[in-house]
Amino acid sequence: MSQTFLIYIVLNTTVTIPTNSKKKKKKKKKKKKKKKKKKKKKKKKKKKKKNSSSSSSNNKNKKKKNNKKKNNKKKKQTNIANLW
Asked: Which of 30, 47, 70, 82 has the most CB atoms within 10 Å of its CB?
């Protein structure tokens, strides 16, 4: 009985193995470099250069067209009135 009891104690005990007395150096974690995001360049809208002479002539042409439209409408209305 005594022999089996002794074996049982030996099996259950944990053995500690002495490690090297020198302390292990901790490995430093390398910091991950953050990738810089490339900024998208905004395309600049090209402004049309307005020549003073051309812009004024364009405005005149627009006014003429508008006047023609108005005159045509008036003519149509008068024609209808004349029919009655």
From this structure: 70
